[in-house]
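RECORD TYPE: inverse folding
INPUT: structure tokens
STRUCTURE:
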């Protein structure tokens, strides 16, 4: 039950969104027990972001939320992959991205909790 939510300062075309979704779907498997079949992804483009007091460069804030425990090694691999994906697709430099991870023991779906 992963959810990847992103806020980016650039406009995302439909083709770019599909590529992001597809590549994030592949990347989520870097976290043990997670797969695209349970992945939900959200994209907010043209988001007003400032980093170091400036907004002249493309930037992103990405959140990865998962059900279960955390795995720092897997998260590290995921950070490298997310950085590559958003760089390749949207031209966002690695030093203009923050990626946040959250793991929870409680996750609701289909009218009940896991």
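DESIGNED SEQUENCE:
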């Amino acid at each position: 039950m992963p959810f990847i939510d992103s806020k980016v300062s650039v406009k995302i075309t439909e083709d770019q969104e599909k590529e992001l979704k597809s590549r994030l779907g592949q990347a989520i498997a870097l976290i043990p027990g997670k797969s695209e079949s349970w992945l939900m992804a959200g994209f907010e483009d043209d988001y007003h972001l400032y980093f170091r007091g400036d907004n002249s460069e493309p930037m992103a804030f990405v959140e990865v939320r998962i059900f279960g425990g955390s795995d720092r090694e897997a998260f590290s691999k995921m950070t490298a992959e997310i950085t590559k994906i958003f760089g390749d697709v949207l031209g966002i430099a690695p030093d203009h991205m923050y990626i946040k991870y959250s793991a929870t023991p409680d996750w609701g779906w289909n009218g009940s909790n896991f």
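NOTES: The beta strands are 3-8, 40-44, 60-67, 97-104, 108-109, 112-113.
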